[in-house]
Amino acid sequence: MKEDTLICAGCGAAIQTEDQSKKGYVPPSALQRDIIICQRCFRLKHYNEVQDVSLENKDFTDNLHELGRRKALVVKIVDVFDFEGSWIPGFQRYIGRNDVLLLVNKTDLLPRSVNKNKLKDWIQRTAKEHGLKAKEILFISAEKNYGIQAAASIMDELRNGKDVYITGATNVGKSTFINKLIQEFGGDEEQLITTSNFPGTTLDMIDLPLDDGSRLFDTPGIINNKQIAHYIPKKELKQITPSKEIKPRIFQLNEKQTLFIAGLARIDFTSGHPNSFVAYFANDLLIHRTKQDNADQLYADHAGELLSPPGKETLQDMPEFLKQSFTVKQGKTDIVISGLGWLSVIEPGAEIEVYAPKGVGVSLREAII
Ligand code: GDP
Fold it and tell me: What percent of the chain is helix, strand and coil (3-state, nearest 5)?
């Protein structure tokens, strides 16, 4: 980005007045304001409504490549509720030899009983499997202001005079975190950047000065297409995203029983001994139990009604269900649907079939709770 281009104070996009369908658009009259924010951020802020603009993942990754060429501290934020959707494919390649501080966000959503040490070990192992060796791992909740100060002081220690780059997949809470940093350290209200439920809010790089003349960069959120947020009508995203501590819901199932997660996913316990299943999804999201033999008919008759979201009008916007089969071989295992939640299978020896909108990541992992 050129030094003299105006940028949106909300998302960092270069300001332009020509094309309403492209990022950074403002009506010419709005150029008179002291603080300029693009129309998209304006609507998001005041009406909680997102305007589609064309985004190119290539722009995002070009910006990230820059990172490997500079000496900096890289802060990577992941969403504890959606680890799988939080990973940026090829991340290690982008960042070169720079140190990484891993911030695990949205920990307010985890049940209080969670063993944080065990979880940290798990995160460390998983990060390593993704080729990432973090200098430090820290639990935070940007929304609830938990761990922000600790994060700030570790950042200061690790950066050692260098610039800081804040990175993360879309929706992990990057903007919320940076806003909390600004508030915590006496920043200007007007400087606050746009946060929303909608993935892909931060469009270009945002640059904030630090005390010693170094800078803090907010890189654009990288899109990980496995996140369910990319496949769900925007209107309904709020309903499926948990906003409070998740209350686990326990189901004792026999083989040939099915759980519907509203109309968004279907999990069949096709064979195995009677087993316990613990569901970690937004508390208000309907989980409906039925017989596997009735499940097709139930979905055909009630998708968009009893089984909603998605609602009747938005059902056709959702990709069709894709079926995937899994065998739970050992220990307590989570079946994860990226961004929607997960189901823990307590005993090994279960055959499971999962139906989820095509494109959404479905995977097994060692149980994290
Ligand atoms: P970004 O795309 O990574 O910049 O993400 P945002 O900061 O815009 O946040 C995405 C969504 O996650 C918003 O709905 C936020 O309110 C929510 N969020 C951010 N941080 C937290 C957190 O610590 N806890 C919870 N429960 N939600 C959060």
Answer: 30, 30, 45
| CA 327 to ligand 1 center in whole angstroms | 33
Taking the domains of the chain in order of start, what are their residue ranges? 3-47, 57-224, 239-366
The CATH fold assigned to 57-224 is Rossmann fold (3.40.50)
Sheet with 362-366, side-by-side order of all strands: 249-253, 275-281, 341-345, 333-337, 362-366
Kindly give the parts of the chain with pLDDT less than 70: 1-4, 44-64, 185-209, 211, 220
Interatomic CA distance for residues 368 and 126, integer angstroms = 11
Atom of ligand 1 nearest to the CA of 242: 26
172 lines ligand 1 (CB under 6 A): yes
Report residue 199 as tokens: 């993935």
Distance, CA 194 to ligand 1 centroid (Å)? 11
**Count of CB atoms within 10 A of residue 199's CB?**
22
Q: What is the pTM of this model?
A: 0.82
